[in-house]
């Protein structure tokens, strides 16, 4: 069967992943809602996943996909714990605005 | 322009626009919905690579599990756009600048390192489908068996941790 | 048998020290004193045993206890060497030591820290024995340091008086300067010959043709500097007169009879080295002669009875060093022994006087004690005649031999030494006249309490006076027992004995005449003219210079102490604050930086994230773009 990259080209995927990643960065910096920040992180993770799969195809190697699999597992765990922390934060200060989490100051 | 390329463009457009909307929309619920669509389109990308397993897992884990979890959390906290505070202009400006900066730097790195030049022949495959579930399963359960098991332990730990963290503390403690 | 007896000889005073230190208070004064005396007497008896033995066999006893230091080609044993020289020293150290211990029982009886006193005295005897019997230079150095320590402890025995403490510190520091020289000498010899053992060194040095003469001279000079410190020679003599702050028995034992002769012992021990370096020998002779003259001239006008004796000691030590410088080691040793007898007797006699006068030491407030204290007077008179060189007392023979040696080697130094001898006769008789003749010049109340000292005080005096009388028999001209006895030690150069010719008789006559002149001058001034030294304030002219000891102390003070003090002050007041503020400055700087830097940590997660992203961008730029 034909390799998909013959028709699309890896550079397109790289551009796509870069832009997607940057959108994630933008979201993290732009929003104050902790849950949206979380979602932005997921977007960044997905951008990286996409690139992993693209290069896996490019190098004719399945290990890239194995890594994607693991990164999904880690992302799931991270979201579970992270959301639990957010719930507990919300319970304590009644908000998940990251602007209000200022106890870390020097 | 081949069909595949057209599909790629359409999917990319959906992915980027949905991701952007998810970040930009002020209502968290809407954000989450946009993100679901974004994840699904990424699953579409995976399908383009003929890696069905990952596409399915992407939809199940991200669009299914994670986003549902997030949606539930949002509903639990009763968040809506009234909660969202306007960020000062400087912050927004900084965010946009850093967005462009990251973008430009990463693309520049890519252009600098030039991984594609002269290697167009290597797109040939060798008669084997490296994206198939069969191949992936063999790699995963042979070479990566131990990390695979660790991943399961990680998920278990995360589950217990999440339960413990979100549990209401008993009064008096 | 010999091994254990040597250990008894060595450790008996040390055991006495331990018992007196730990149980002295419980034992009571009499037992404590008796025990201390007994410990030294045991050593004395052991010394006699060895002395008799070595007289029969003529062979030195060398005992090695164990290997002490063993480096790859450097070996040092812990051992003792009992030869003719060390036994001679042992005999008079422990012998006079026993007498002085006995004396101290009575003299120190009123002191509440009597046990401490005897502990120190025993420790001193132990270290002195170590110094004398050690088989190599390092063991000798241990003893050397140890006697210095005991000297310090005993000078400052009445530690409640700050002046005494200062005197103790002065003695210690002066000795340290000398000790450094001694150490350097040891180092040089050790590096040259890879051994410090006396017998090995002797073979190596006497046979060694490859020895570097410059280095040997340096070693000899360093050792001599060590000797000047301990034996109170110019330029390190000023501690000895101040050391009279200690109790009188201490002055007699340590600062007249034994410890101060350690330098002479050391040079005699190392005679094979000094024989090779005539330049250094000449320096020793000159230093000795000058010291003898200077100290004698200072002694002329001192009014403190013990100070007079102290300067007399310095002067006599100078004479001994002069003899050493001429290579006449046996003569020096002879004078050491006779001097130990009569000077110990003089000090103990002065102690008896001081005891009777309740710690009055100023001769201007004495006088007329002849009838009240006849035994003290007679014994002191004998010793005074001995030190003045009047025949047939012992001092005549030893001093005369020194003068003869000087005459044969260097006439100028002979003149210097003779003048010093005349001065000696003068100031000693001045002391006697002021103390014992004419009328009592103290207060009436004191006069009532005047009494002859008890038997425990006078017995040592009598023994020492007898010894001072007959001590000359050791080396009578024509008999020369001591010369023969010491011959194995001094075999390097066969010392020629003076044949008694016309020159010698003339020299003797001159010496005796000089002594008589000194006595006559003292007689005419203090008996005939009834002269009593003026109070301190009225002294003027050259006498004032003499009375103030040529201002040597002041000279040292302004030359050495004051610059060091001002340097220290400079360090303390300028350098230390500067360094301190520098160090504190670093702290303050770090603190200020932290205070400034902590403002970056606003606690705002957005800010952190922004910075984080920016940082990632910069790192990426650095890694991949530039």
From TrEMBL, chain A:
Which InterPro entries is this protein grouped with?
NADH_UbQ_OxRdtase_chain4L/K (IPR001133), NUOK/Mnh_C1-like (IPR039428)
**Might you report a single GO cellular component term?**
NADH dehydrogenase complex
> GO biological process annotations for this chain's record?
ATP synthesis coupled electron transport
EC code: 7.1.1.-
MF terms (GO), sorted A to Z: NADH dehydrogenase (quinone) (non-electrogenic) activity; quinone binding
Write out the catalysed reaction. Answer: a quinone + NADH + 5 H(+)(in) = a quinol + NAD(+) + 4 H(+)(out)
**Where exactly are the transmembrane stretches of this chain?**
12-30, 35-55, 67-90
Annotated NCBIfam families:
PRK05715.1-2, PRK05715.1-3, PRK05715.1-5
Family (UniProt)? Belongs to the complex I subunit 4L family.
What the protein does comes down to: NDH-1 shuttles electrons from NADH, via FMN and iron-sulfur (Fe-S) centers, to quinones in the respiratory chain. The immediate electron acceptor for the enzyme in this species is believed to be a menaquinone. Couples the redox reaction to proton translocation (for every two electrons transferred, four hydrogen ions are translocated across the cytoplasmic membrane), and thus conserves the redox energy in a proton gradient.
| The protein, known as | NADH-quinone oxidoreductase subunit K
Lineage at the top is:
Bacteria, Pseudomonadati, Bacteroidota, Flavobacteriia, Flavobacteriales
UniProtKB/TrEMBL annotation, chain B:
Record keyword Transmembrane present: yes
- Point out the coiled-coil segments of this chain: none
**How does the entry describe its membrane topology?**
Multi-pass membrane protein
Question: What is the protein's major site of localization?
Answer: membrane
MF (Gene Ontology): NADH dehydrogenase (ubiquinone) activity; quinone binding
Record keywords: Cell membrane, Membrane, NAD, Quinone, Transmembrane, Transmembrane helix
Q: Where are the transmembrane segments?
A: 6-25, 32-49, 55-78, 90-111, 144-165
EC numbers listed for it are: 7.1.1.-
* Catalysed reaction equations from the record: a quinone + NADH + 5 H(+)(in) = a quinol + NAD(+) + 4 H(+)(out)
Gene Ontology cellular component annotations, sorted alphabetically: plasma membrane
Q: Where in the cell is it found?
A: Cell membrane
Main EC class the enzyme belongs to? translocase
Which family does this protein fall into? Answer: Belongs to the complex I subunit 6 family.
The record's function comment reads:
NDH-1 shuttles electrons from NADH, via FMN and iron-sulfur (Fe-S) centers, to quinones in the respiratory chain. Couples the redox reaction to proton translocation (for every two electrons transferred, four hydrogen ions are translocated across the cytoplasmic membrane), and thus conserves the redox energy in a proton gradient.
Q: What name appears for this protein in its UniProt entry? A: NADH-quinone oxidoreductase subunit J
From TrEMBL, chain C:
Q: How does it sit in the membrane?
A: Multi-pass membrane protein
Domain called NADH-Ubiquinone oxidoreductase (complex I) chain 5 N-terminal: residue spans:
68-118
Q: List membrane-spanning regions.
A: 6-23, 30-52, 86-105, 117-135, 141-159, 180-199, 211-229, 250-268, 280-301, 308-326, 332-351, 372-391, 411-433, 454-474, 505-524, 605-625
GO BP, one annotated term:
ATP synthesis coupled electron transport
Q: Where is the NADH:quinone oxidoreductase/Mrp antiporter transmembrane domain?
A: 135-424
Q: Which UniProt keywords apply?
A: Membrane, Transmembrane, Transmembrane helix
Descriptive protein name: NADH dehydrogenase subunit L
């Amino acid at each position: 069967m034909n390799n998909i990259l013959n028709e699309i080209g890896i550079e397109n995927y790289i551009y796509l992943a870069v832009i997607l990643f940057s959108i994630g960065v933008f979201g993290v910096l732009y929003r104050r809602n902790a849950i949206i920040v979380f979602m932005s992180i997921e977007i960044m993770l997905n951008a990286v996943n996409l690139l992993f799969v693209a290069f896996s195809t490019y190098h004719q190697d399945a290990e890239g996909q194995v890594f994607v699999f693991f990164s999904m597992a880690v992302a799931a765990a991270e979201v579970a714990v992270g959301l639990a922390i957010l719930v507990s934060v919300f319970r304590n200060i009644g908000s998940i605005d990251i602007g209000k989490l200022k106890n870390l100051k020097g | 322009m081949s069909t595949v390329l057209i599909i790629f463009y359409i999917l990319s457009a959906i992915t980027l626009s949905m991701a952007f909307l998810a970040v930009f929309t002020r209502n968290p619920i809407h954000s989450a919905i946009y993100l679901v669509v974004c994840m699904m389109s990424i699953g579409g990308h995976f399908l383009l690579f003929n890696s069905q397993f990952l596409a399915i897992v992407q939809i199940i884990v991200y669009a299914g599990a994670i986003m549902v979890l997030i949606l539930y959390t949002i509903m639990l906290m009763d968040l809506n756009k009234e909660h969202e505070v306007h960020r000062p202009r400087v912050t927004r400006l900084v965010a946009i600048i850093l967005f462009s900066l990251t973008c430009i730097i990463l693309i520049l790195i890519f252009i600098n390192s030039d991984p594609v030049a002269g290697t167009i022949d290597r797109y040939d495959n060798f008669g084997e489908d490296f994206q198939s579930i069969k191949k992936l399963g063999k790699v995963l359960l042979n070479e990566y068996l131990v990390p695979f098991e660790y991943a399961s332990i990680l998920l278990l730990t995360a589950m217990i941790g999440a339960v413990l963290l979100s549990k209401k503390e008993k009064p008096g403690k | 048998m010999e091994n254990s007896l040597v250990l008894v000889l060595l450790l008996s005073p040390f055991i006495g020290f331990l018992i007196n230190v730990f149980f002295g208070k419980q034992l009571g004064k009499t037992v404590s004193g008796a025990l201390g005396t007994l410990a030294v007497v045991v050593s004395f008896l052991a010394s006699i045993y060895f002395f008799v033995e070595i007289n029969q066999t003529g062979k030195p006893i060398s005992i090695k206890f164990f290997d002490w230091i063993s480096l790859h080609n450097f070996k040092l044993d812990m051992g003792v060497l009992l030869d003719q020289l060390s036994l001679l020293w042992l005999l008079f150290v422990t012998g006079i030591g026993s007498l002085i211990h006995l004396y101290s029982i009575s003299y120190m009886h009123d002191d509440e820290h009597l046990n401490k006193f005897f502990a120190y005295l025993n420790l001193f005897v132990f270290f002195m024995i170590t110094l004398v019997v050690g088989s190599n230079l390092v063991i000798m150095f241990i003893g050397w340091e140890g006697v210095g320590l005991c000297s310090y402890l005993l000078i400052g025995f009445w530690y409640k008086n700050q002046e005494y403490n200062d005197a103790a510190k002065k003695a210690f520091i002066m000795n340290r300067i000398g000790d450094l020289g001694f150490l350097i000498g040891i180092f040089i010899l050790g590096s040259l010959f890879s051994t410090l053992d006396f017998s090995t060194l002797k073979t190596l040095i006497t046979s060694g043709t490859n020895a570097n003469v410059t280095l040997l001279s340096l070693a000899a000079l360093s050792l001599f500097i060590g000797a000047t410190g301990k034996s109170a020679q110019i330029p390190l003599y000023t501690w000895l007169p101040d050391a009279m702050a200690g109790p009188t028995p201490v002055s007699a034992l340590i600062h007249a009879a034994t410890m101060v002769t350690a330098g002479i012992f050391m040079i005699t021990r190392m005679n094979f080295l000094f024989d090779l370096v005539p330049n250094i020998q000449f320096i020793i002779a000159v230093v000795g002669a000058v010291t003898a003259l200077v100290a004698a001239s200072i002694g002329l006008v001192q009014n403190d009875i013990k100070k007079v004796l102290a300067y007399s000691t310095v002067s006599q030590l100078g004479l001994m060093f002069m003899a050493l410088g001429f290579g006449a080691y046996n003569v020096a040793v002879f004078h050491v022994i006779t001097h130990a007898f009569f000077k110990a007797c003089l000090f103990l006699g002065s102690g008896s006087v001081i005891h009777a006068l309740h710690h009055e030491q100023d001769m201007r407030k004495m006088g007329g004690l002849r009838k009240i204290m006849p035994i003290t007077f007679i014994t002191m008179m004998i010793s005074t005649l001995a030190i003045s060189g009047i025949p047939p007392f012992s001092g005549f023979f030893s001093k005369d031999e020194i003068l003869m040696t000087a005459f044969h080697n260097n006439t100028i130094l002979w003149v210097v030494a003779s003048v010093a001898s005349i001065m000696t006769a003068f100031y000693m008789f001045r002391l006697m006249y002021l103390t014992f003749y004419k009328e009592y010049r103290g207060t009436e109340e004191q006069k009532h309490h005047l009494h002859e000292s008890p038997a425990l005080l006078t017995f040592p005096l009598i023994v020492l006076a007898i010894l001072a009388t007959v001590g000359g028999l050791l080396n009578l001209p024509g008999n020369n027992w001591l010369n023969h006895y010491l011959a194995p030690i001094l075999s390097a150069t066969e010392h020629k004995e003076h044949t008694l010719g016309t020159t010698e008789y003339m020299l003797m006559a001159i010496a005796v005449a000089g002594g008589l002149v000194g006595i006559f001058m003292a007689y005419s001034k203090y008996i005939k003219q009834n002269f009593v030294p003026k109070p301190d304030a009225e002294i003027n002219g050259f006498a004032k210079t003499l009375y103030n000891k040529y201002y040597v102390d002041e000279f040292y003070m302004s030359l050495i102490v004051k610059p060091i003090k001002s340097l220290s002050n400079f360090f303390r007041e300028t350098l230390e604050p500067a360094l301190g503020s520098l160090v504190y400055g670093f702290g303050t700087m770090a603190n200020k930086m932290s205070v400034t830097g902590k403002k970056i940590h606003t606690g705002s997660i957005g800010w952190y994230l922004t910075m984080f992203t920016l940082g990632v961008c910069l790192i990426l730029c650095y890694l991949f773009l530039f």
